[in-house]
Amino acid sequence: MGDDLLTIGQLAVRTGVTTSALRYYEELGLVRPATRDSAGRRYKPSAAERVGIILLLQQVGFTLREIGRLLGMRTSTQVWRELARRKLADLDRQITKAQAARHAIDHALECPRENILDCPNFAAVVGAVLEGKTLAEVHPG
């Protein structure tokens, strides 16, 4: 069993993840070494796929805590779907916010004023933000 196991360094090279991140994943229970002895941690080759799953889920916006819940309950599709629905709603909010920011920046770049701080539209947006409105409310995309 020992020859086919990976050291933490080999797993790091194979996945592109630092050894400190792998140790942190282990601390969170996301990845577990097959053995741990005086020579260090040893991982099954399948641990690389597990790290790949973690990386993919991070890229779509899941937190490590959420990933831990997802990986800990492979059989519960109801929980998975609820987490996925919440993540989609969060992504929709982020997209709306980013679109409003993009629209505001485009508008600022088209402003004929030499200094954006002298623009009455900019001042109006600042005033609205100070009143508690979001950029998406004041400057929808």
Fold and architecture overview:
There is one protein chain. By secondary structure, the chain is mainly alpha-helical. It is built from seven helices and three strands; from the N terminus they run E-H-H-E-E-H-H-H-H-H.
**How far is the N terminus from the C terminus?**
58 Å
Gross morphology: elongated
Count every beta strand, where a strand is a DSSP E run of 2 or more residues: 3
Largest sheet: 3 strands, antiparallel
Fraction of residues in helix: 55-70%
Uncertain spans, ≥5 residues at pLDDT below 50?
Answer: none
SSE string, helices as H and strands as E: EHHEEHHHHH
What's the mean pLDDT score? Answer: 89
Strand content: 5-15%
Name the strands of the widest sheet in spatial order. Answer: 1-3-2
Q: Give the helix tally.
A: 7
The Cα radius of gyration reads 23 Å
Sheet/helix structural class: mainly alpha
Question: What is the strand and helix layout of this fold?
Answer:
Blueprint: E1 6-7, H1 8-15, H2 19-27, E2 35-37, E3 40-43, H3 46-59, H4 64-71, H5 77-110, H6 120-130, H7 135-138
Antiparallel strand pairs: 1-3, 2-3
